[in-house]
Amino acid sequence: MTNDTPTGQSSTQDPEPGDAYDAHRAAMTTILGLGHLPDAWNASVTGYLVMAATAADLFLAFPLDDTYDELAPVFRPDSVTSEPDRGSSNP
Amino acid sequence: MTAADDDGVGSASKIATAIASGETTAVREVEAALARLAAGNPALGAFTDVVADRALIRARKLDAAWAVRSGSGSTPGALAGALAGALAGVPFAVKNLYDIAGVVTRAGSKINLSNAPAGTDATAIRRLEEAGAILIGACNMDEYAYGFTGENAHDGPSRNPADLTRMTGGSSGGPAAAVAARIVPIALGSDTNGSIRVPASLTGLYGLKPTYGRLSRAGTFPFVASLDHIGPLARTLADLAVTYDALQGADPRDPVCRPPRLEPGLEPVGPIGCGNDGPPLRIAVADGYFRTGAMPNLLDALDHAAAAIGATTRIEIPEAHRARAAAFVITAAEGGALHLDRLRERAIDFDPDTRDRLIAGAMIPAQWVIAAQRFRRWFAGAVAHVFRDVDVVLALATPIAAPKLGQKTFLFEGRELPVRPHLGLYTQPLSFIGLPVVTVPLKRAAGELPIGVQVIAAPWNERACFRAAAMLDAARVTATPTV
User: Fold this and answer.
1) Which long-range contacts (CB under 8 A, 24 or more apart) does B381-384 make?
2) Which of B343, B377, B415 sits opposite A34 (nearest CB)?
3) Beta carbons of B390 and B287 less than 8 angstroms apart
4) What is the secondary structure of B166-225 as a DSSP string?
5) Cβ(B139)–Cβ(B96) below 8 Å
6) What torsion do the CA atoms of A9, A15, A16, A18 make, to the nearest 10 degrees?
7) H or E stretch at B446
8) How far apart are CA B343 and CA B329, in angstroms?
9) Is B226 in CB contact (< 8 Å) with chain A?
10) For residue B131, which of B33, B21, B248, B23 has the smallest C-alpha distance?
11) For residues B195 and B209, what is the distance between their CA atoms, to the nearest angstrom?
C-alpha cells in the first residue's frame, strides 16, 4: 500500500490498514450494498481510501470562513426567460 | 492520389483543400485512412470499433454531391453545408465514450458492452460531420476514463507511435495513437483531469481542453460531471483550431454548455500562424508546484520555448497542490457515485485497478467532498487574480516523457509514485477550475521522446491559448510537422 499524496508529499499521520480506514471500509461496504469484498480488494480499497484521506488533509487544513457558499444552482437574472403569468383572465 | 504529405498523410486542412480543388475525393481519403488503420492498428491498439460502411457511404454521398455541384447542378441542403465545410472529406476518430449511432458506447469497459447500441450520434460527431468530416471509428481508452496510462485490461493498451514499447498516456490514449500514427489527422477525446493533455504530451500532438462549458458533452459517457470536458487532438495547430471551430455552439442537451459567444480559434492562428493579431500577450511561466519534480531536461525544453517567445517572467499559481488534492477527492467521489450500481452488480467485470479506486471513491465522507468544492471556489477566485497580471501561463503537461507499458511507478522528487493516478499532476489543478488549455508539442532532439507544454488562459479565453501556441509555432520551438 502506498501512502503517497497526490503531490508526492508524505503525511505525518498516515493510518495503516487494519485501523480506522479498514473499519470505515467495512461499514461502508454494508451501507452501500457492495456485499463481501475479497481480501485482496479490501486491501486495495483501503489503500485508495488512505490516499484520498491524505489528499483531503491538504485542503481540509486550508482556512476558509464559515460563510455561505455557492454549492447549488443559482437563478441569475439572465436565466429568467419570461415573466410569470399573473392571471390576466382573473380581474 | 490522396492529399498526402511527403510522410504519407495530409493534414485536415490539406485534405479539405485538395477535395475542394478536385485533386482527390472523399472516398479516396476514407479508403486510404481505413487502409492505414488496418495496417497499423494491430501494433498500435488505437481503435476498438471501425465504422467503414458508414464512412464509405458518407464519402460517396459527398463525392456525388460534389460532382453535381461541379456540373452546376443543385446540391441537397445538408450536403451543401458539409461540402462547403472546413473539414470536407476529412477522416476522423473518437474516443469510444462518444455515442455513435448503431454502435455500443463502451467507455473502455466490458460492462457497457451489455448496453444497447446508441440511437444517435453525440453532438460533437454531428457537428464535425456537418462541417464535412467523416467518422471512421472509435478508439481505445482507460476504462471509464479513470487513468492516465492508456492501458486497458479488456482491450489491451494503446501504444505510443514514437516508441511502441511505451504508453500513449490516457485516458484518451487511442485517439492520440490514431493521430500520432497518422491514421487520421484529427480525433476527439475527453479530459476530466488531463486525459487529452497527458496523451497529447506523451505522443507529441496538439490538444485542446476548452473552458468548462464551452463544448457540448451531450452523447458522451460521463465520468465526473463537474470536471468533464471534450476536445480535439491534432498534428497541427491549424487542424486543432479548425476542429474546435466546428465543435463550438451552445447545446441544450448538455446543461453546462452555455458559452457566452462563439470564438473562432483559426482566426488567431491564421494561415501562417504567427499569433500577432492583437495587443501583445503577457506570457509567464508557472513556477513552484508546476516545476517541482519535473525531469530537468524537460524543464530546459520548456524554458527554451518560453524564452523564444519572450516569456521570461515566472508566476505562482497559489495553492496548486491543494487544488490537485481536491480534484483527486472530487473525482473519486463523483466517479464512485456514478458507478455504484455497476459496482454492486458487476464488480468482477471491472478492470481491478478501476474498480478498487471507484469503490474507495464511493466511500469518501461527504465532509471531504463539500470541503473540496468550497476550496474549489476559493481557488478559482485566487487564479482569477493571477490572470489580471498575465494573459497566458506556460507549464509542462507531464513531469516525465512516456513511461514503458506496464510501468507501475515513476521517480518524482526522489520517490516512486504510482503512474496511473499521478501522471496528470500538472494538468489536474487546471481542469479543476475549468481553465482553457492548449497543449503544444515541444521540439525534441533526435531520439528524444515527445513532451508537451500547457498553454493556459483565463476562462473563455481560448483565443489567447491559440495566439500563444501560434507564437511558439512561429518561433520554431514546436514539433510541428511540415504540411
Assistant:
1) B382/B318, B382/B319, B383/B317, B383/B318, B383/B433, B383/B435, B384/B458
2) B343
3) no
4) EE--SSSHHHHHHHHTTS-SEEEEEESSSTTHHHHHHHT-EEEE--TTSS--TTB--S-T
5) yes
6) -160
7) none
8) 18
9) no
10) B248
11) 9
Cβ of B250: how many Cβ atoms within 10 Å?
15
List pLDDT tens digits, range B198-245.
Answer: 999 999 999 999 999 999 999 999 999 999 999 999 999 999 999 999
* Type of residue numbered B106: R
Q: What is the pLDDT of residues B334-363, one digit of tens each?
A: 999 999 999 999 999 999 989 999 999 999
* Residue bearing cell 453532438: B123
The arithmetic mean of pLDDT across residues B405-423, rounded, is: 94
The sign one gets for the Cα dihedral B2, B5, B11, B16 is negative
Q: Pick from B357, B415, B422: which is nearest to A48 by CB?
A: B357
Q: A42: which 3 cell numbers?
A: 479490501
User: A64–B352: do the CB atoms touch at under 8 Å?
Assistant: no
Does a cis peptide bond (omega within 30 degrees of 0) precede residue B195? Answer: no
Using CA coordinates, name the residue in chain A closest to B331: A52
ipTM, two decimals, is: 0.89
CB B174 within 8 A of CB B95: yes
- Other CB atoms within a 10 A radius of the CB of residue B42 amount to 8
Contact between A62 and B319 using a beta-carbon 8 Å cutoff: yes
What does each C-alpha distance from A27 to A34, B437, B459 come to in angstroms?
A: 10, 41, 41
